Amino acid sequence: MNEQVSEHHLDFTWDDVFWTTSARLLSWGDTPVNIVFAPEGRGDEPLAPQEIALIRWVITHDASMAKALFAAVLKKYPMLQENYGYSSEERVKYMPDVETIEQLGQLIDLQSANVHQITKAKQPYAGFEFACRWDQEHGLGVLMHGNRVVQIGGADTAILLWIAEADAEKP
Q1: Average pLDDT for residues 114-122, to the nearest whole number?
Q2: Percent of the chain's residues with pLDDT above 90
Q3: Domain for residue 81, yes or no?
Q4: Do the domain assignments include residue 53?
Q5: Spatial distance between the Cα atoms of 16 and 79, rounded to a whole number of angstroms
Q6: Verdict on whether the full-model pTM lies above 0.70
Q7: 139-162 pLDDT, tens per residue?
Q8: Residue 128 domain boundaries
Q9: Judging by beta carbons within 10 Å of its beta carbon (0-12, 13-18, 19+), is residue 101 exposed, middle or buried?
Q10: Residue 12 within any structural domain of the chain
């Protein structure tokens, strides 16, 4: 199935689990990023125009989302270092101290953007799933509502619909 999203031509594929495509999100470099629509809780019916609009919103607001995401992860990073509790030698290797977004960017690699099928105030929930140096098994996940970071955790944080649903119910 081919769909046109903004200036981006995206080829959506149903892979027996969810709809997926790839696109360049300029804030994350020149390599196309895997975009998953509705990683949980949706059937295989073709994407509706309002669902395409959610994906378009994420692509269009990529820069502001990336800025907010990196600022939040950078702020939480010292707590993550503490939680992982690496010895001083391991810490230098896996979770060195970072002071800038550029330094943080050296430790994480975007694997996919997961656009959820729910909204709040006409803005989508999107989860960004990263490979990270400090947790190769569970990775890093950031769930966002629009340009606001909802939760930072393991990669599953980017995928789990119930986290977005719980946030959407808050006033």
Answers
A1: 95
A2: 74
A3: yes
A4: no
A5: 38
A6: yes
A7: 999 999 999 999 999 999 999 999
A8: 62-169
A9: middle
A10: yes
